[in-house]
Amino acid sequence: MLDRMDVDEAKRVAREEIDRLTPDLLQVSHSIHANPELDFEEHYAHELLTGVLEDFGIAVTRGAYELPTAFEATIGVEGMPTVALLCEYGALPGLGHAVGHNVVAAASLGAGLAVSRIVDALGGRIVILGTPAELAGGGKELMRRRGAFDDVDLAMMVHPADREALGMQTLAAQRLRVTYIGEPADAAAAPEHGHNALDAAVLGYQAVGALRQHIGANERVHGVFVDGGGRANVVPATASTEWYVRSTDSSSLDLLKDRVWLCLQGGADAAACELVGEWIDPALDEMYVNQALIDLYAKNAADIGRHPLSIDDSDPITSSSDLGNISHHVPALNPVIQIAPQGTPLHTPAFADAAKSEGGDSGVIDGAVMLAYTAIDCLASKYNRAAIRGVFQGTA
C-alpha cells in the first residue's frame, strides 16, 4: 500500500498527464461528436479510440467479446487489483450525441491513459473497455456474460448532464417490440372483410395511456409506432409498436411488464387481430449504489472545484443504463458531471450542442481527472477497496 504522500504524487503525475493529453482528448471528443453512430454500428468511434490507444503503445483487442464495436485494453499485471474505465460512444437516431457519449468516451480514455503511466507503481491494473450500445442494446451486459468483468474489482465512468450529482435515479428497464397481424381488405369496396392491425395498435396504445394513471411514481412506459400500414385505401394487415417499460427494480419491472402486455393484447382482441411480441434481451437492472466509492469520487471532485450533490438532493435525473447490470456483479460508479446550463434536458438538440461546447470540453478533462484520482485511491489503498467491497457485499 502506498502512503498518503505517494498517493498525492500519483495524482500529481496523473493530472500532468491529462493536461498534456488535453488536445488529443478534446480531438477524440469532437471527432466522435461529429460522426454519430447508432448502437452496434459505432465503427468510427471504435477505430478512433483503439487507434489512439495503440498510438500510445497499448495493446488493444478489437471486436472484443464477440461484439464488432467493443474493445479491451489492459495495462498492468494480471491478478492485481483492477479498475475498469468504461467508454461509451453510441448516439441517438436523429439527435446525434444528445446524450453526450463523446464526453464519456474521451473522459474514460484520458483517465485510463493517465493512470497507465503509474499503474505498476500503484500495484494495480487498469482495463479500458469500449462498451457499445448502451442506449438500446445493453452492450455492457452482453460483454459481462462473456467474461469482460470477471477479473475486474470495480468499474467506473462519468456521464454528462445539466447538473453536478453523485449519480442518477436509475430504473430497471426492458424494451418490447410488438406486431399486430390482421387481415387486409379494400377499405372502400369491402372493409367488412378486413381486420385492422392499425386499429389494434392504436387501441393497445390507448390502453397503455389509461394504465399510466395507475402505476407508481418511479415507473415509466413509453412507446412509438414503427409501422402503421401502407396505403390508406387498404385495411392495414400489420402494424408495429416499440416500447420501453421501466420500474424501480427488476421485481417490480416484471409485474409492470405483465400489465403492459395485457393492455397491448386487449387492443389486439378488440380488433380481432393477432399480437406477437418480443421482450428484447438484455433487460437493464437498476444501479446498485456503492456509497464508499461515491464518497471517494466526491472528495476528488471537491479537490478540483466541482461539488456534486447527493442523488437525493439533486432533483435527480431519471434514467436507465446497462451499467446497472454491472453494478450487481462488481462495485460500479456512474456520477454525472455538468456540461450544460441547468435545465437543459438530455436527448435534445440543445444537449447535443452542449456536448461539443466549452462545457463539454471541461467535462472531458475534469471527468478524466476525477476518474483517474478515484482509480488511484482504489488501487493504492487496500482499505478503500475493502470498504467498497463491504458496501457491495452488504457487510459494511
Concise structural overview:
The chain contains twelve helices and 14 strands.
3D architecture notes:
With 396 residues, this protein is of the alpha/beta class. 42% of the residues lie in helices and 19% in strands. The chain has 12 helices and 14 strands. It has a 6-stranded mixed sheet. A 4-stranded antiparallel sheet has the order 9-10-8-11. Helix 1 (4-34) runs antiparallel to helix 3 and helix 1 (4-34) packs antiparallel against helix 11. The model is unreliable at 1-5 (pLDDT under 50).
- Helix fraction, binned, reads 40-55%
Number of helices: 12
N-end to C-end Cα span: 21 Å
Overall mean pLDDT: 96
Gross morphology is elongated
- Biggest sheet, in brief? 6 strands, mixed
Q: Strand-and-helix sequence, N→C? A: HHEEEHHEHEEEEHEEHEHEHEEHHH
> Radius of gyration from the CA trace?
23 Å
> Which spans of ≥5 residues are poorly predicted at pLDDT below 50?
1-5
Count of distinct strands? 14
Amount of beta strand:
15-25%
Strand order of the largest sheet: 1-2-4-3-5-13
Structural class: alpha/beta
Features:
single chain, 396 residues, alpha/beta, six-stranded mixed β-sheet, four-stranded antiparallel β-sheet, 42% helix, disordered N terminus
Describe how the helices and strands are arranged.
Blueprint (H helix, E strand, L loop, with lengths): L3 H31 L8 H13 L4 E3 L8 E6 L5 E6 L13 H16 L2 H4 L2 E6 L8 H7 L8 E3 L2 E3 L7 E2 L1 E10 L15 H15 L8 E8 L10 E10 L2 H21 L3 E11 L6 H13 L14 E2 L3 H5 L4 E2 L2 E3 L10 H6 L3 H23 L1 H12 L3
Parallel strand pairs: 3-4, 3-5, 5-13, 6-14, 7-12
Antiparallel strand pairs: 1-2, 2-4, 8-10, 8-11, 9-10
Helix pairs in contact: 1-3, 1-11, 3-11, 6-7, 8-11, 8-12, 11-12
